[in-house]
Structures are given as structure tokens and as C-alpha cells.
Amino acid sequence: FINNIYIIQQLGLFLYTRHNLFYTIAESIRLKYFGDLRNKEIATVLGISEKTVASNLTRALDKIRQSNFLQ
């Protein structure tokens, strides 16, 4: 469990600092893929709209793909 938290924190740090993503974008991807939350739940947690969550996830994944982080 502690190791998972560390990985989540490192991914968030990577997303936030390396790609200059806003806090809500990094949080959106962490809550979606590591918290297993749905977009509606993420929107509620972050106080943003579901459309913004979807946009955040798309932008974050595009940044990750461009960086070759997953390869």
C-alpha cells in the first residue's frame, strides 16, 4: 500500500513539474487511474465540471504520450 502511494505521488510530481500541468489536471489523472474514480466523482472531488475532467485527462495523456514516459 505504501509503495502504491509513493508511485502515485511520483507520477503526480512528474505530471505537475515536468509538463507544467495544473494541479487539477494531475489530480484528475491520479484519481481516474489510481483511485478508480469515475469522471463524475472526480468532478465532485475537485469541484470542476465533468467536461473539464475529460479535457484534463485527454491533455495529461497526450503529454505522457509525447514524453515517451510509457515506453
How would you state the average pLDDT, rounded?
79
Number of helices: 4
Rg estimate, integer Å: 12 Å
**N- to C-terminal distance:** 25 Å
The structure class reads: mainly alpha
Low-confidence stretches: none
* Shape, principal axes of CA atoms: globular
- Main sheet properties: none
Number of strand segments: 0
In sequence order, what are the helices and strands, one letter per element?
Answer: HHHH
Instruction: Work out the strand percent.
Output: under 5%
- Determine the fraction of residues in helical runs and give it as a percent range: over 70%
Quickly list its features:
71 residues
Concise structural overview:
By secondary structure, the protein is mainly alpha-helical. It has helices at residues 2-18, 23-33, 39-46, 50-67. The chain is globular and about 25 Å long.
